[in-house]
From TrEMBL:
Record PROSITE patterns: HIS_KIN
Keywords, comma-separated and alphabetical: Kinase, Phosphoprotein, Transferase
Domain of life: Bacteria
Organism per entry: Nannocystis radixulma
The keyword Phosphoprotein is annotated on this UniProt entry: yes
EC main group: transferase
CDD domains, A to Z: HATPase (cd00075), HisKA (cd00082)
Protein name, UniProt field: histidine kinase
InterPro entries linked to this entry: GAF, GAF-like_dom_sf, HATPase_C_sf, HATPase_dom, His_kinase_dom, HisK_dim/P_dom, HisK_dim/P_sf, Sig_transdc_His_kin-like_C
Short name of any one Pfam family annotated for the protein: HATPase_c
Amino acid sequence: MSEIAGNSIVATLLRLGVMGKSDWDCALQQVLEISCDLVGVERASYWSFCADPPAITCELGYVHSKRMLERGIVLTEEAAPAYFEQIRTVNILAVPDVRREPRLQPLAGYFDTHAIFGLLDVPVFSQGCLAGILCHEATHAPREWSPHDTELALTLSHTLSTLLEARARDHAERSERRAAFLAQVSTALADTLDPARAGEIVVRRGLPVLGDICTLIGYDGQRAWRVAAAHVEPAGQRLLDEMCVRYGGEIDGPGLGVQALRERQSLLMQMADEPTLREAGLAQGHIDLLVALRVRSVLSVLMRSRDVVTGVLTFASRDRNYDREDMRFAEAYAQQVGTLLENTRLYAQAQAAIAARDDFLNLAGHELRTPLTSLQLAVDRLKKSLSSPPPLAQRAVDTIARQATRLSRLTEVIVLSAHNCDGDLPLRFARLDLAALVTEVTRDFGELFTRAGCDVRLRADAEVMVDGDQTGLEVVISNLLANALKFGKGAPVEITVRRDDDTARLVVLDHGIGIPPERLDSVFERYHRAVSPTNFGGLGLGLHISAKIVDAHHGRVRVDSRPGEGATFIVELPALVPAT
C-alpha cells in the first residue's frame, strides 16, 4: 500500500472515530461514504431488518460517483429465501460475481438495474441481535474481495453497531424526558380550574419542546374557535397574534389545523415553503405572515375526550422538519392535555350551573318571604276571628299556622345553604320534647303516607328532652320522613325516638331502594343526589340542610344502607334531664 493511500485510510479512520454519534442519519451517511472510500466500491448501503413480515429495507444507500443518496427498496424473505438464509448463517457474504451465484438469482433484476457484479455483505448487530446488513457493491466488473476488504467491512459494521446502540440509548433517554415532560404538563394543568388559563398553559408548555409556535383551536362538533397561541419570542408573538386575528380558526377556513378537524386526522407538512402553502389554499397575506415567522415545518394533531374531537393543536418549527416520531409525540401530548382541558371545561360548566342554582334559590327565597308574611298575618287574623271553631277547623288552622312558620324558617335556611354560608343558622333554642315533636310531624305526614301505601310504625319514649330549635328540628324530621316517603313508597316506615343515657336518638328506617355504597359518604353534601334525578326529583339540598341544622345542635346524623334493603337515618342530639 502506498504512503498516500495509507494516509488516506488513517485520515478516514480518524474521521470515523471523531464523528458525532447522536445524529443517526448523519452518522449513517458518513459511514457509507467512508465505506466507499476504504473498500473502494461504487455503492454502499445499510439495510435494516423487519420481523413481520421478514424483510430488509434499504434505510440509506450512497452512490460514490454521483454523490447521490437512495432509500426505500424492500426485499422480502419470501422473494429471496436463499439470500436470507446466507445472511443469517454466515459472518461475511463475499461474492466476486453475483451472476455466477445461483442462490442470488432472485436478485438478478436489482443487480442488472444497478450494474452490480461484486457483493460484500456483513451483518450489523445491536444488543446481541441481528439488526441489519452493511452492503458493499462493485459495479461494471467482478471483484475479488481481499482479507483486507473484509476486515475493513467488519470494522465498519462494528461502528454501525455502536451507532445503533447509541441511538437506542438516545431514544430511551428521549422517551424518558418526554414522559417527564408530559407529567409536568399534567401537574401544571391540575393546578388551574380556569379554561382560558388552561389553554394558555397548553400552548406555552408545548414550547420549545414541540416547536417554536403553537396554536390551540377549540371545537364543539360544529363550530371552531381560536383558544390560545404562543411563540417562543416576543417579536414572533406579535406576528402570530396578527395572523390569528386576520385568519381565525373558522371550521371552513384555510390552514392545516382546521383541515385536520375537517378530515378527523393528524396532518404533517414537512416542508412549509411558499409553493406548498399556496397549494394548501392559503391566501397570500397568510403566506407572507408564515414566511415572516420563518415557519419551516408544520404539524396538526387532534385533541379528544372520550373519543370525541374537542380541538386541534398546531405546532410549527423554524429550524427542523417534523417527522413521524414528532407527530406521535405531539399526538401523545394532545391526548393527555385534551382530557385535562375537557375536565377543566366541565368543572367550570358545573360551577356556573351551581352558581345559577344558588342565584335562583336566593331569589326564590327572597320572593317567598312576602307571600309567607301575608299568609302568617292572614292566619293570625283568622285565628282571632274564630271564637270557638269546630275541632276539625281548629286543627286545620293550627296546621296552616305551624306549616307557614316552618316554611318561613326553612326559606331562610335554604338561602343560607344555597350560598354555602358558614355563619350561624337562624335558630332559636329552647327546651323541647323531641318525642312529642316527632309525633306531631309524623301526624302531619299521615295522609301522605296513606296515599303512598306506607305503613308508619312510630315508637317513642316519654319526654326525650333536648335543647333545640323547634322549627329547625321540624325541618330535619320532615326531610327524613319525606326521604323515606319518596324512596320507600309502598313499604313500611319505622320511626323510633328514644333516650340512651345522655343522647337523644331519632331513627327513621325505610324498606325502599337503598343507597349504593360508593355514595354513602356524600349523601349529606350540598346538591348531592344518591339516585338519578330522572326518576326522583329534588335539588339535593334536603339532607344537606338537615345535617347543617343537626350540627348547629351539636349533634350528628349518619346513614346506613344497602341497595335494595332500604336506608336507616340516625340523628343523635345531646339529651337534657327530664323535668321533675
